[in-house]
């Protein structure tokens, strides 16, 4: 079966946290059972390869970029494609004239150690919350040698020379040598693909990676002309109000302007409510408790949403569905931004059927993961994916139906049908594309333990504590294009307006940003805001 | 108390003598790090990261970044060394050494109360004189193989093992002479460096044609073709569903299929045009046909091409389009309408080579290749990187020599000659400025001194020997690194690039002068920005 390939990018530290969770989630959902193959077409995001020893590999089709000092134990080349041994490897120079400078080997986290020790079940309990310092500490998949790229010019978490300005990233891209190597890696990946459908880009929008990612997206647009779905991410951790926050806002504004122009669709990600306001509170989920200050926690939520929402074009049932369709559905009339929503777990109450649950829903069925944007149910263009609700839980059989018979939804015979009906009735003036997948999201280590103790192993919600380890959950996630986004743009605009003159932040000016460009960027935000306002209904 | 501390009490600052001391000690520090790397007997540094990634280098800028030196002065010097590399491709270590030595010599006089301004003016006089000496030492050369071999060898021997250096010298000189077109500027991009992780560095070779790191993606396509027409084009042969048609607008699956089929036909027509041309030119002859496309070719199109025994490559490197046209002739086409025979290139042999999951395609036996490939081989990634750096520098050295149409004697000969000339020149200079000239003359000797030390000889002995010999012979002499005696560089075939030396003299003087004139260093970080 052919797949329509997607090449993924991760630019920045937080994006790599999200990405790592995403690849881990996918790997937990691999099915090694011949008789029950997965509904998900993994060939879309993964590639099959072969090492020099003729071993078959299955690795993410991914290019990840981070700063120096984040990799820890992980080798840039990856350890999958071990090099052929050679006795005279240093023959390029007299060995006696070789000064060897060795850095101490960094410690591996206990989770990684156990992963390397045995490929089998990791039954041990890990304290991942305190052990995870970097995304490599809970990275399950192994990478192709092309995958990891390090920006050597800057060091991670360095205060004297931070990589915190949009234009710094832009300037690195302009450095011919680096971008040539990077572009060649992109080209090699694309050359392998038969029917590529586009690119996924996750990028940190608050620091220099915003510029680097934006420059890369522009290059992809010029060179390949395929659909590009990008996710500018903001770490929603709490922070003291300071000038650094304003710099982040400026970076975000510049980033959105650039990716809005060049990507097919973008959806800002943040686990906090507002993203850029100092008084930021975390998004609340009824059945989850998570620590907003841990990148490891918040990125898991974002990754779950990404994994679910992209199932629309990653399932085997509808091979013709493509990324370009999704983008075409949502990016009409200059509405390049979309809000992303998540319902984790999708609230299937114990011993009740979907028909009753939908009937009793009150309030919003989803939580927004886009900063400063509430997703209304009305007047949306939306693409929604529901996974893990089985047909058995749809309704009672005829002889046992009782009250359910009276409900109009009783005539629906599939989850897809019933959900479509529900969305049609509850969302006014909306157009919805719904994808339903039977498989639930399997939860395995190193997914953080964030579920409340009233969640059953299969993801059902009980009204009392059950204290089971959650093994799988139903999830719903969606991309929505509607009025709420105008608030997001206006909030970002208001915040960015506080920087009246870019000259105050000389780092921006030194690295090549003009006041005019910034003013133009602010106007762009206002244009976007207006594009989402509906005055006709 | 410095004015800054009135405005910002948290500011850190260093004034006058203290500021100078900071700069000088930084320059000395970085000089010490780099000192051992100079020349063919110098050492390389092998950096092993915590995760086991290896890098072997003597490039000053790389070292500074990798070794996490974060001193502002040191990074200023490192930047001068990077600029040196960008401009000329050689002399990065010398830059660092000379700047360090200029500051060290200056320190002696400044500590005795000389004003830095006087010194820097002296430096400037000395610089002008040194350039004069450099011009007088120029040895004109012709861009022939014999003329270029020596300068390339001198550069490469400081980067790789001598036996390998000699081999690479041949490869590099041949490459440059092949792509050189009359008196036009040489475009080094027309020498493609292709890495192949395979065998050993000694297998590195010159291919008079193009090697690409991708192959055909269809099992039935020919793997080897002789006497081939080459069509290079930038035309999409891949069906792409546009984003214009939203999924909301189809009523049925059939409707959608119909639209897809109609769009598909558009691509098929392009492929048919190529096939038509192939039939016209090749059918009934022993000629064959290769399509190299910068855009994609999807499986149905590949299938059509394979049926006609056409080899099709997709997603060629953008720069290879230009290279292919130069190597094989023909033009890179942006449309397949009106394809003619004169648009096509020609190659005697096109074949594929598979290594692990990577395919390589060789386009060889071109009639008059104006673009060539150096195929770098090495057992592992870091060897390849090291090799690539070396070859790049070798190519640059040859290009510099051709551009200058001259070389200068190496092995420290120029520095010795310049130092002697400056000592004589000093007598003509009036006033305290002569101290600057004196310091400059001393500082230049750091190059032969370091060469001597790195080869295991005494630096004073060597300098004295060189001075005596040079005075006796009345011409520039350099140091023989194997015997420690003086030699004539021209006899030993040791030559440096004129432009490299000129750049070193100019940039080192400027940087050193700037550092000397610094009288206050302050750091007023906005503490609120952290976090």
UniProtKB/TrEMBL annotation, chain A:
Q: Which InterPro entries does this UniProt record tie to the protein?
A: DML1/Misato, DML1/Misato_tubulin, Misato_II_tubulin-like, Tubulin/FtsZ_GTPase_sf
Q: Where in the cell is it found?
A: Mitochondrion
The identity of this protein, by name, is Protein misato
Q: Which organism is it from?
A: Cephus cinctus (Wheat stem sawfly)
Q: Where is the signal peptide?
A: none
Does the record bear Mitochondrion in its keywords?
Answer: yes
Q: Which GO terms describe its cellular component?
A: mitochondrion
Q: Can you give the residue ranges of the DML1/Misato tubulin domain?
A: 130-313
- Where does the Misato Segment II tubulin-like domain start and stop, copy by copy? 4-116
Biological processes annotated in GO: mitochondrion organization
Automatic annotation (TrEMBL), chain B:
Q: Which GO terms describe its molecular function?
A: ATP binding; ATP hydrolysis activity; ATP-dependent protein folding chaperone; unfolded protein binding
Q: Where in the cell is it found?
A: Cytoplasm
Q: Which UniProt keywords apply?
A: ATP-binding, Chaperone, Cytoplasm, Nucleotide-binding
Q: Which GO terms describe its cellular component?
A: cytoplasm
Organism domain of life: Eukaryota
Q: In its keyword annotation, does this UniProt entry include ATP-binding?
A: yes
Pfam families the UniProt entry points to: Cpn60_TCP1
Q: Which PANTHER family match?
A: CHAPERONIN
- Family, per the entry? Belongs to the TCP-1 chaperonin family.
Q: What is this protein called?
A: T-complex protein 1 subunit zeta
- Species of origin reads Cephus cinctus
* Chain's gene name: LOC107266758
């Amino acid at each position: 079966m052919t797949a329509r390939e997607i090449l993924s990018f991760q630019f920045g530290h937080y994006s790599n946290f999200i990405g790592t969770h995403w690849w881990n989630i996918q790997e937990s959902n691999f099915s090694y059972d011949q008789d029950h193959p997965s509904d998900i077409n993994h060939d879309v995001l993964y590639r099959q390869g072969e090492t020099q020893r003729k071993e078959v590999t299955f690795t993410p089709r991914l290019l990840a970029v981070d700063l120096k000092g984040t990799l820890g134990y992980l080798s840039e080349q990856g350890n999958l494609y071990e090099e052929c041994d050679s006795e005279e490897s240093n023959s390029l120079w007299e060995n006696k004239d070789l000064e060897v400078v060795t850095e101490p080997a960094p410690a591996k986290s206990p989770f990684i150690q156990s992963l390397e020790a045995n490929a089998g079940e990791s039954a041990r309990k890990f304290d991942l919350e305190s052990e995870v310092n970097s995304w490599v500490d809970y990275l399950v998949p192994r990478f192709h040698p092309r995958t990891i790229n390090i920006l050597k010019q800057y060091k991670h978490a360095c205060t004297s020379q931070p990589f915190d300005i949009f234009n710094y990233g832009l300037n690195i891209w302009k450095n011919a040598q680096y971008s040539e190597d990077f572009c060649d890696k992109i080209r090699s990946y694309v050359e392998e693909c038969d029917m590529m459908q586009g690119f996924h880009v996750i990028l940190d929008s608050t620091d220099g990676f915003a510029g680097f990612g934006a420059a890369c997206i522009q290059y992809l647009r010029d060179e390949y002309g395929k659909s590009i779905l990008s996710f500018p991410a903001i770490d929603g951790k709490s922070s003291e109000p300071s000038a650094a926050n304003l710099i982040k806002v400026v970076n975000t504004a510049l980033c959105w302007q650039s990716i809005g122009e060049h990507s097919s669709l973008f959806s800002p990600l943040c686990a906090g409510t507002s993203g850029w306001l100092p008084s930021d509170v975390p998004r609340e989920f009824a059945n989850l408790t998570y620590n907003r200050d841990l990148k490891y926690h918040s990125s898991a939520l974002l990754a779950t949403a990404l994994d679910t929402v992209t199932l629309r074009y990653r399932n085997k049932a509808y091979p013709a569905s493509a990324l370009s369709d999704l983008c075409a559905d949502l990016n009409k009339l200059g509405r390049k931004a979309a809000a992303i929503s998540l319902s984790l777990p999708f609230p299937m109450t114990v011993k009740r059927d979907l028909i009753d649950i939908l009937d009793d829903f009150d309030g919003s069925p989803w939580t927004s993961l886009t900063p400063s944007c509430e997703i209304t149910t009305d007047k949306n263009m939306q693409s929604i994916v529901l996974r893990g609700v089985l047909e058995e839980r749809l309704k009672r059989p005829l002889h046992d139906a009782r009250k359910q018979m009276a409900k109009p939804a009783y005539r629906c015979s599939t989850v897809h049908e019933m959900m479509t009906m529900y969305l049609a009735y509850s969302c006014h003036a909306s157009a919805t594309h719904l994808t339903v997948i039977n498989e639930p999201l399997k939860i395995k280590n190193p997914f953080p333990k964030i579920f409340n103790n009233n969640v059953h192993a299969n993801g059902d919600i009980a009204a009392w504590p059950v204290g089971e380890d959650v093994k799988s959950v139903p999830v719903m996630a969606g991309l929505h294009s509607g009025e709420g986004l105008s608030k997001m743009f206006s909030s970002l605009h208001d915040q960015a307006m506080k920087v009246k003159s870019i000259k105050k932040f000389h780092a921006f000016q030194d690295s090549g940003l003009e006041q005019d460009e910034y003013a133009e960027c602010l106007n762009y935000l206002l244009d976007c805001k207006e594009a989402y306002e509906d005055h006709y209904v | 108390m410095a004015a800054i501390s009135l405005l910002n009490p948290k500011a850190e600052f260093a004034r006058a003598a203290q500021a100078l001391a900071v700069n000088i000690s930084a320059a000395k520090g970085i000089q010490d790090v780099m000192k051992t790397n100079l020349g063919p007997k110098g050492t390389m540094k092998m950096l092993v990261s915590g995760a086991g990634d290896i890098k072997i280098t003597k490039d000053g800028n790389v070292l500074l970044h990798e070794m996490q030196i974060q001193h502002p002065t040191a990074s200023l010097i490192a930047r001068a060394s990077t600029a040196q590399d960008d401009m000329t491709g050689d002399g990065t270590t010398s830059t660092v050494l000379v700047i360090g030595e200029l500051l060290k010599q200056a320190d002696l006089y400044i500590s005795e109360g000389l004003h830095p301004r006087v010194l820097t003016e002296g430096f400037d006089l000395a610089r002008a004189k040194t350039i004069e000496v450099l011009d007088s030492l120029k040895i004109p050369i012709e861009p022939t193989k014999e003329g270029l071999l020596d300068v390339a060898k001198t550069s490469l021997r400081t980067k790789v093992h001598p036996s390998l250096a000699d081999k690479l010298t041949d490869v590099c000189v041949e490459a440059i002479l092949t792509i050189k077109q009359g008196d036009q500027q040489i475009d080094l991009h027309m020498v493609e460096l292709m890495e192949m992780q395979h065998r050993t560095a000694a297998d590195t070779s010159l291919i008079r044609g193009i090697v690409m790191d991708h192959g055909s993606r269809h099992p039935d396509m020919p793997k080897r073709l002789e006497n081939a027409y080459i069509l290079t084009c930038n035309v999409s042969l891949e069906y792409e569903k546009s984003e214009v048609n939203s999924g909301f607008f189809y009523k049925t699956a059939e409707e959608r299929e119909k639209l897809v089929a109609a769009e598909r036909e558009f691509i098929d027509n392009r492929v048919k045009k190529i096939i038509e041309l192939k039939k016209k030119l090749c059918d009934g002859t022993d000629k064959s046909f290769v399509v190299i496309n910068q855009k994609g070719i999807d499986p149905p199109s590949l299938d059509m091409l394979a049926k006609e025994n056409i080899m099709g490559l997709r997603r060629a490197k953008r720069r290879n389009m230009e290279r292919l046209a130069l190597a094989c002739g023909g033009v890179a086409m942006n449309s397949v309408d009106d394809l003619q025979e004169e648009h096509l290139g020609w190659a005697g042999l096109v074949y594929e080579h598979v290594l692990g999951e990577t395919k390589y395609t060789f386009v060889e036996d071109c009639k008059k290749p104006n673009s060539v490939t150096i195929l770098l081989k090495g057992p592992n990634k870091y060897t390849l990187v090291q090799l690539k750096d070396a070859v790049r520098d070798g190519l640059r050295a040859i290009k510099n020599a051709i551009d200058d149409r001259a070389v200068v004697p190496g092995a420290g000969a120029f520095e010795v000659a310049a130092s002697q000339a400056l000592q004589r020149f000093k007598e003509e200079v009036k006033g305290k400025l002569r101290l600057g000239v004196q310091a400059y003359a001393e500082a230049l000797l750091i190059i032969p001194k370091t060469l001597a030390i790195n080869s295991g000889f005494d630096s004073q002995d060597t300098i004295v020997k060189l001075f005596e010999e040079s005075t006796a012979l009345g011409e520039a002499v350099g140091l023989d690194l194997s015997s420690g005696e003086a030699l004539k560089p021209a006899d030993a075939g040791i030559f440096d690039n004129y432009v490299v030396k000129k750049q070193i003299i100019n940039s080192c003087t400027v940087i050193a002068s700037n550092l000397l004139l610094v009288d206050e260093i302050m750091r007023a970080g906005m503490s609120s920005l952290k976090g």
